[in-house]
Every structure is written in C-alpha cells, then in structure tokens.
Known about the structure:
Elements: H1 3-6, E1 9-11, H2 21-25, E2 31-33, E3 39-41, H3 51-55, E4 61-63, H4 68-81, E5 88-93, H5 103-109, E6 118-122, H6 130-138, E7 143-148, H7 159-174, E8 184-188, E9 193-195, H8 205-209, E10 215-216, E11 224-225, H9 235-239, E12 245-247, H10 252-259, H11 262-270, E13 275-280, H12 285-289, H13 291-294, E14 300-305, H14 313-321, E15 326-331, H15 343-359, E16 366-370, H16 378-392, H17 397-407
Parallel strand pairs: 5-6, 5-7, 7-8, 13-14, 13-15, 15-16
Antiparallel strand pairs: 1-4, 2-3, 9-12, 10-11
Amino acid sequence: MSEKCLAVVEINQDLCSRCYVCKSICPYEAIKSDSTGKVEVNSQDCQVCGICYSACPVSAIKMNYYTYDNLSEYVKQARAKAEKDVDTLVLMCRGNSPSTGEVQDILSEQGLNFGNYIALRLPCAGRVPTDFVFDSLNSGIKDIVSIQCEDPFCRYKEGTKVNTRRLVLARNLLKQLGFDDDAVKIIKFSRKAVYDVQECVGCDKCIFICPYGALEFESFATPKVNEEKCTGCGACQLVCPHHAIQVKGFEFENVLKRYGDSAVQLKAKNNDPAVLAFVCQWSEFSALDNPSDAFGGKNVLALEVPCFKSMDPVHVVNALQCGFDGVMAVVCSSKDCKLQEGRDTAERNVGVLKDVLKKMNLLDRFELYEESPRDACDFKHKVDAFYSKISALPKSEVLVEAKEKRTK
C-alpha cells in the first residue's frame, strides 16, 4: 500500500502555527511533534475521526472526508433539491443513526417535530467545525440539531464531549450575532438492544454472548438490558434463535427485506454478476455514503452493520441462495475496531461460516476484508479484484437452482 493511500490526513506545514491544539485533542495520540516542533500525523495510528481537523484554528489540517467545503456544499445542494423550503439541519453520528432512518423517532422523543429536515450523517460529532454551524445558520438554516452519542459510547472516545463543548460555546455567541440562542440543540442518544418479550423463550444465550455484560438474568422473565453498559453492537441478536432481541435499524427481517429480491433487480440492468457487501459503519466511509462511486457502477448492494460482531452468517448463506453471485464483508481490523470486546466471537462465526460455504461449494464466492478509512485507494482495488474473481467463476449449481425456483 502506497504512502499516498495512507495520507488522508495531512498537515500543511506552511500554515501550521505549532499551537499543538491538534496534538492535545487527538484521542488516539496519533499526532506527534519532533525535536524541531514540527507537527505530523502518524497514519498508522490515525482513526480519521476528524477531531483534529475541526479543531485547527488556522485550517492547516487537510482531510479527504467530510471537509468544511464538502459539508457546506451538501447542505446547499440538499436545500436546492427540496420541494419546499427546508430550514432544519440534523447532524447525526453513525453510531446512533443507521442508514434506514429512525431519525424522526429520536426527534419526537425529545418533543421536536420539524417536518422536513436535512439529515447529515457523520462518523463523529467531533469532526463538525464550529464555522460550519455558523455558515449553515447564515445560509438560511434556522435550527440545527446535533444527535450525538452518549459520552461513554462515543466510538471515537472524545468526539461527543468535544462537540458538546463547541456547541455550548457557539450557543453563547448566537444571540450576539443576531440568531435565536436556541437555534442549536444537542441530543444525547445511543442505540441499544431491545427485546420483544413475546418472542423471548428465556434461553439466556444473549446473556452469555454479550461482551459488555449489558444483559442481566431475570428469574422467570426476559433478561434485562442494562443501558449503561449496552453499546448496541448487535452480538446478542446474532445468537437469539427467535430474533427476540435486536438493534433497531438492523433487525433480521429488516435486513432480509433489503436484499431479498435485489440480486434479480441488479442483474436485470445488464446481467453482470450481483454482489452483496456487508460493510461495518466504521471500516469504509465511501461504501456507505457514496456507494455508486465506491463500487464504480458495478452491481453491488451495500448494507451497513453496526459492528463485525453483528454480521450474521445466515445472511451470507441466504444471499447466495437468493441469487447473489458473491458476498463480501468489509470490517475493521482488530486494531481499528471501535468495539473491541467480543471480536473473538465474530472471528469464530466467520470460521463456522466458511466451513458451511465450503461444504456447499460456495466458499470462493465469499471474502472478508479488513479495511480502514485511512486506506483511501485500497478499498477500490479490493472491490475490483473481488468483482473480477466473481465474474470469472462458472455459474454455481446453488445459484442456478435458486433462479429456477424463482422462475417457477
């Protein structure tokens, strides 16, 4: 992998004032200074959270993702496309808002009902520059709502705390600048596992598998979710035989519906192979934010998962039986994983999955990739290689049988 691929966060030494704000605020200690005072980013330690970028007072830090200009342009275009005037902007962390939505539910719980709004998903609240907030208000946005992860559950450790402090300071300035001092609102929210008590049979498998000890035994009752410990990783829903405990937005039936008939629809366009990609929210930003660009016009459907631990092997097997020619899983490496506990369980699941696929003669149609947002051009190479491999494979008997069943 070339250095160019890794350099998604760079410091312009000509602009850098060596104030060391970035160094002091980096949650991963990825920013160092040498004996001369020069500040540099260690690409291997950087998690591309963007906290340093949004904190730099002289804009000396350059990033590939979610820059001030990108964010401002997104809001501008979203307002231009809207049929009616939209004057509310909702900023959401990936950790508390799956791509399927539920944003309105979160707002309603806080007594907020805006109707139309622009939804902007970000890897972390901490990467939002204060200048962007003021720029949005100056452009005609009247209300900005920041839906942040609860402090203990921030995937980037300090992102929520950093952004909260910034927005509180910004609110103190709003009135002086002629804006409503209530124009910026902060909501703390973290997605948790929830039970369908009518489906629970009390097997307690979820209790044993939870890597965070967030599920507590209850005599003659459904286990209790300790929300102070639950991270919403989804490991519990993977082992529940009755789908009685799930993470909202990633429910088994919800995911099943999203890819069930997609293979046929994708192939109807050009008869090229259809590939399903399960992508961890934190492993590759472009695959979820701009899938058409990330996959280069290929027949690829990307579905996000909250963590490697919640990638259900059943969906991989089922997708191949539904007509997909290949399935790729894109996850964080063990070093980069934002929810480290319980990773061994996910790796064992993949081992079992590969054994099953091997017996079904489908092992060559599945690939697991470890990816990071800092590997800017590496992901495209992996996608191209996997798609070429799938394109060269002969038609699978399982896939042919699946097609015959659908046509009958």
